[in-house]
Amino acid sequence: xxxxxxxxxxxxxxxxxxxxxxxxxxxxxxxxxxxxxxxxxxxxxxxxxxxxxxxxxxxxxxxxxxxxxxxxxxxxxxxxxxxxxxxxxxxxxxxxxxxxxxxxxxxxxxxxxxxxxxxxxxxxxxxxxxxxxxxxxxxxxxxxxxxxxxxxxxxxxxxxxxxxxxxxxxxxxxxxxxxxxxxxxxxxxxxxxxxxxxxxxxxxxxxxxxxxxxxxxxxxxxxxxxxxxxxxxxxxxxxxxxxxxxxxxxxxxxxxxxxxxxxxxxxxxxxxxxxxxxxxxxxxxxxxxxxxxxxxxxxxxxxxxxxxxxxxxxxxxxxxxxxxxxxxxxxxxxxxxxxxxxxxxxxxxxxxxxxxxxxxxxxxxxxxxxxxxxxxxxxxxxxxxxxxxxxxxxxxxxxxxxxxxxxxxxxxxxxxxxxxxxxxxxxxxxxxxxxxxxxxxxxxxxxxxxxxxxxxxxxxxxxxxxxxxxxxxxxxxxxxxxxxxxxxxxxxxxxxxxxxxxxxxxxxxxxxxxxxxxxxxxxxxxxxxxxxxxxxxxxxxxxxxxxxxxxxxxxxxxxxxxxxxxxxxxxxxxxxxxxxxxxxxxxxxxxxxxxxxxxxxxxxxxxxxxxxxxxxxxxxxxxxxxxxxxxxx
Length: 633
Hints:
Elements: E1 4-5, E2 11-12, H1 14-21, E3 25-31, H2 37-50, E4 58-62, H3 65-79, H4 81-84, E5 88-91, H5 92-103, H6 124-135, H7 141-153, H8 163-171, H9 177-193, H10 198-212, H11 216-219, E6 227-230, H12 238-248, H13 253-258, H14 260-265, E7 275-280, H15 294-297, E8 303-307, E9 309-310, H16 315-325, E10 340-341, E11 352-354, H17 360-375, E12 384-388, H18 391-404, E13 408-410, H19 421-433, H20 454-466, H21 473-478, H22 485-498, H23 502-515, H24 527-543, H25 546-561, E14 565-569, E15 578-583, H26 599-610, E16 613-620
Parallel strand pairs: 3-7, 3-8, 4-5, 4-6, 6-7, 9-10, 11-16, 12-14, 12-15, 13-14, 15-16
Antiparallel strand pairs: 1-2
Helix pairs in contact: 1-2, 2-3, 5-10, 6-7, 7-9, 7-10, 10-12, 16-26, 18-24, 19-22, 19-23, 23-24
């Protein structure tokens, strides 16, 4: 099938060659799993350069920093870094921040140190929680921040009566009038303090297009680029859609139906862009909870190009992926409904479905027994990934693997589950109950609320650690002539823990950490965090002592330095591939998740998990099988 070539001479299949050769017009490219979309985007950029297009006139917008760096490096490998650095390759947010600094170079909110949560700026929690308490809002602070981001990038008019409904429709967040009140005050607070958050980078540019599109600096955006390419189009939100089409100088009936002022009053077609591509795969649209709107990628006014060939997986894995999404209403176009395996692809093992595992311990035993059978002494552990819907499942997986002597690492979490923020807090309490002081005690000072200031407790902890041997926090507080009420409460709480049995101690810590959030409970966006905390509590009870937990940590640290099995949520591995993939906990209540508002998106998560596999895919349940598995039988 390699009967096409890029301008640089790289062999391509006919579908890939058609995308690379596309020069005039505006298209959406449906690129199936393993179809080589990054390769195609890079070849197209290089081809334009070889045809005489200035690299500065080619824009590639990636979903995240890693993807942008990968594309730039691949271009550099072909034509040299000095040429690659002339291409405009960036994430949407980084590119937008560059425009804002160019438009308003003296605006303090766009300078370094004004992005919330980064060095030099306050944390979002330090501003949001007191604001909620002052306003007496019935809002969990993380949900409030999610509502603010979705409002900004979803281009929602917060003044409209249906604003809460619109937030719910886009993301599934159960927004109320209190969430709207939070968003209003949060927006005002950022303006007063000259601060921005991540969503503002893209949101301000998009609002400038919609509200000030006739101004010279906004019009200039459409005169800068001759060719625009946007990756991961299925994960785009309203702001990305507006900015992307503005840069592309493109807009049809679909766009005008969503954004009438942009389509009519601002003459979206007045720019100099000659071609634009929005590349993605609606079958891999799994970020609706962040405000992504899958229907925006399905813009019918754009030409349709398809990359259907999966160059990653065996015939049987490709077939299982197709079966998972077959017949769905959002997958009814025969031109894009399924992928095909590469010519000569191996048949591979049949995708296995272990739906007779009655509980979690039986599932964990089956999964890691099979991994040992396939890998120990035969192939690298790193050939294997175990994927799950939630972080809570990863806790159980790590504990079971280390107990069996299977080396594992968790994606994006050096040190494993006990090195996560909630794991460190849990351990700080356990150690504190035994008279051992660690810096992590500072992080639990107000979990639950004790009105204990960070500088005050940090000074006491520093004093404890300076002694040889270090003294307990209770001893240190006892030496203070007039300790604050907050210090006395923390000292008393550690004494309370010390008097409890190990199991009761772990359960009490779980209760305190859950109660340490605003309004005294985990909110909807942190249900997974609550589940992970419960799994940590159960794991601590099973291990039985701080010493056993520390031994577990050492085993994880050793595994991370060697080749090891990857444990990850499905969301973190979109775009990745592994020879062997286990999809764990595909059971009722987990996948689809019991709190999910969009079961179609949950099904797409299963599709993404299956299509990470190159050779082997095993799906396990550990309880009542998911309804999704009926599609694979």
